[in-house]
Specification:
57% helix, 280 residues, mainly alpha, 12 helices, Methane Monooxygenase Hydroxylase, Chain G, domain 1, single chain
Length: 280
């Protein structure tokens, strides 16, 4: 019988306590590499926050790409319902990314100026994973590959993405397999963003007017709207945080800073799904 005053020992209930030659939690997650990947280059206290904020964002984007690539593949199968779970997961990932801005906003302009010079020309504008997410979702601009030309493998990955159907292209393919649209209305340059398309809006309108007849397409459309909704919130929180911390100064990467980010707020990933609401 154990004395209530004795220290609790998990081993008495079967917990593994010795890991010599066995895989531990830290081994499985590669924590030695992960937790030693922060290398502040200034003595400023808040630089650690800045680094971890962006590193964790890149990890979430890594997962978002994993899910989005799979979702795009699922849309080519007979049963597209598995894609819905994946798209929901990506939406939740962007919810996490949105919450992270609340932490970064605890850094004041005074805090940031203590290490901003140390950043040189590095900037989130240069995130290859963010660019790949945008390309995969359909916001495509070949000029945005240039910041990655010094990394041939990354630049090639982005160029390859420009040749592939976007997630919305795959959604359109499913839509037009159920509701025919003239081939001439489907011709587009895959290296450019999606533009509003009247024929596609009419097809989506048919789906929204009779959800029970087109339930999978209806569900797909709403999953895409959820995703872009949270993606827009992420962009809005980004510009708000930047304006709060640096005002209207130029970004470290040479962009206009807030002015550039506000321009990005106008981008529509799935323009037909936004416009169809007006005609319903």
């Amino acid at each position: 019988m154990t004395n209530a005053d004795d220290p609790y020992d998990p081993a008495q209930e079967g917990a593994q306590m010795a890991f010599d030659g066995r895989m531990s939690y830290g081994d499985y997650l590669g924590l030695d590499a992960l937790l030693t990947a922060q290398h502040p280059i200034s003595p400023a206290h808040d630089e650690m926050l800045f680094i971890i904020q962006h590193q964790t964002s890149e990890l979430w984007m890594r997962l978002a790409l994993h899910e989005l690539h799979c979702a795009r593949d699922e849309l080519g199968n007979d049963d597209i319902r598995p894609a819905f779970k994946l798209l929901t997961r990506v939406t939740r990932i962007f919810e996490q990314l949105n919450s992270a801005w609340d932490v970064l906003r605890t850094m004041t302009p005074s805090d940031y100026t203590t290490f901003r010079e140390a950043l040189g020309q590095s900037s989130g504008f240069q995130s290859a994973q963010y660019r790949e997410i945008e390309f995969l979702l359909g916001n495509r601009n070949p000029a945005m590959i240039r910041p990655h030309d010094h990394r041939a493998e990354i630049a090639e990955r982005l160029r390859t993405e420009l040749t592939r159907p976007s997630l919305y292209d795959c959604a359109i393919a499913r839509l037009t397999s159920a509701i025919p649209v003239a081939e001439t209305d489907l011709i587009r340059d895959r290296s450019k963003p999606h533009s509003p398309n009247d024929a596609l809006q009419r097809a989506w309108a048919e789906v929204y007017r009779d959800p029970s007849a087109y339930w999978d397409l209806y569900e797909l459309a709403e999953k895409l709207m959820d995703l872009e909704d949270y993606f827009r919130r992420w962009r809005f929180n980004h510009v708000t945080t930047v304006e709060r911390v640096i005002g209207l100064k130029r970004g470290t990467g040479g962009t206009g800073g807030v002015s550039y980010l506000k321009r990005m707020l106008e981008v529509e990933l799935f323009p037909d799904l936004w416009r169809v609401r007006t005609s319903l």
